[in-house]
């Protein structure tokens, strides 16, 4: 289960990635001053910024400070992460997610934590409306297993601030990135979603509901609870794409309890995680991917036992065309006002047969499956599809050698273009026609 989208998993990964994270701090630490906001609709708000107290980029603000800042401040200024550039060519009818292939060899090498690309915090694609619908059906059925908040911490108001600032950051991102589809009226505080043909009076609704109804991605907010010695606690979120667990069973728990599934790590990991989080600044958000090979497109699977049982055998009815690469693309960033940290996840599915014309990908995945850390692969449960996927990868690899896009006997390691592959952009643009 190690590489599923769950928080304990991401957290576990972050522990493994700590030494790397330290390097990340030391080396990628290019001091960037907050970029001015170029979007005309938001300019008014920027004028509030010079009055901000000097909490940037690590400390949370006091309630009095937050109140004085008022609604809808400029988050590019508050966080030091610039707004995304407008993506005018983008067309929601044909858009495909970028083809993330976060495979690594040597496997243990790094956590492949990289700095978030500000243009890609949220990423819309042609499944936008169907995914929103699918997610709302999951919500109707499972309710607080999907969206919830936990207010039993020493400063419960911070949870509400975090939810609201997440909503505001989402609005600013969407309007700046996809101006053809989203507009925010800063005098009436009305958000227009042209894809759905709907308006939202954003301060009259629950901010988590707003995010849920406009972004088909998962979010989880954690923040330190003084009442529990400053441990980071999972306080709010919406998670639809979990497999084998659900938000309802994790909310309100401290990080150590969340990944209690890996018992031997508990004590050590919890402290390291809390330390790592306490140092994460608003201007250094992180992105990474985890992956799995699955049958079909299982988005939300409630109840781990049934699911695990299905994965404990090799089903001989599985066909090559049933196999899908599931990538969970994850980002992690500190919220500037509440001091919370928000994880964001999206599950992306790609037929494994797509690897055919992706240079080096079949060879790399085959290597990882054959020689990767057995413990990790066991967690992933890839064994239950290996009888189908390994011969398939081998065939694709041989074909790439014949075609001259991959050399026989070439050393297999993480691709230079990671998390993508050579020529990905051309293939991706052809697929989505822009
Ligand atoms: C609130 O949290 C405290 C400390 O974690 C705990 O002892 C208490 O039982 C909780 N109260 C409720 C109503 O859950």
UniProtKB/TrEMBL annotation:
InterPro entries: HODM_asu-like (IPR021848). Keywords: Membrane, Transmembrane, Transmembrane helix. Pfam families: HODM_asu-like. The chain crosses the membrane at residues 6-28. This is Uncharacterized protein. It comes from Arthrobotrys oligospora (strain ATCC 24927 / CBS 115.81 / DSM 1491) (Nematode-trapping fungus).
């Amino acid at each position: 289960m190690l590489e599923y989208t769950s928080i304990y998993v991401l957290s576990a990964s972050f522990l493994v990635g700590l030494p790397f994270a330290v390097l990340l701090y030391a080396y990628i630490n290019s001091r960037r001053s907050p970029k001015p906001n170029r979007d005309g609709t938001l300019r008014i708000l920027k004028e509030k910024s010079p009055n901000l107290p000097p909490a940037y980029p690590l400390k949370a603000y006091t309630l009095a400070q937050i109140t004085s800042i008022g609604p809808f401040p400029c988050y590019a200024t508050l966080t030091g992460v610039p707004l995304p550039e407008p993506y005018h060519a983008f067309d929601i009818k044909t858009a495909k997610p970028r083809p993330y292939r976060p495979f690594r060899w040597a496997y243990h090498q790094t956590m492949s934590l990289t700095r978030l690309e500000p243009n890609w915090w949220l990423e819309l694609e042609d499944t936008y409306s169907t995914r929103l619908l699918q997610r709302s059906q999951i919500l109707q059925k499972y309710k607080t297993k999907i969206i919830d908040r936990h207010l039993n911490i020493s400063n419960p108001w911070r949870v509400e601030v975090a939810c609201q600032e997440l909503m505001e950051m989402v609005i600013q991102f969407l309007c700046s990135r996809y101006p053809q589809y989203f507009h925010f009226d800063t005098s009436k505080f009305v958000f227009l979603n042209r894809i759905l043909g709907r308006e939202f009076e954003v301060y009259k609704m629950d901010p988590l509901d707003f995010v849920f109804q406009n972004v088909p991605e998962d979010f989880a907010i954690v923040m330190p609870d003084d009442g529990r010695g400053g441990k980071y606690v999972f306080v709010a979120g919406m998670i639809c794409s979990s497999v084998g667990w659900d938000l309802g069973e994790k909310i309100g728990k401290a990080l150590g309890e969340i990944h209690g599934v890996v018992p031997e790590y508990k004590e050590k990991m919890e402290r390291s995680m809390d330390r790592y989080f306490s140092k994460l600044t608003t201007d250094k958000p992180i992105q990474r991917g985890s992956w799995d090979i699955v049958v079909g497109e299982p988005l939300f699977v409630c109840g781990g036992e049934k699911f695990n049982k299905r994965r404990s055998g090799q089903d001989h009815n599985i066909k090559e065309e049933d196999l899908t690469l599931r990538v969970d693309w994850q980002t992690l960033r500190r919220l500037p006002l509440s001091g919370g940290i928000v994880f964001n996840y999206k599950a992306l599915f790609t037929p494994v047969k797509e690897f055919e014309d992706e240079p080096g990908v079949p060879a790399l995945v085959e290597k990882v499956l054959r020689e990767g850390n057995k413990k990790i692969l066991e967690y992933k449960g890839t064994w239950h599809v290996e009888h189908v996927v390994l011969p398939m990868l081998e065939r694709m690899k041989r074909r790439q050698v014949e075609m001259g896009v991959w050399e026989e006997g070439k050393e297999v390691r993480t691709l230079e273009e990671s998390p993508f592959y050579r020529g990905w952009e051309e293939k991706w643009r052809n697929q989505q026609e822009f």
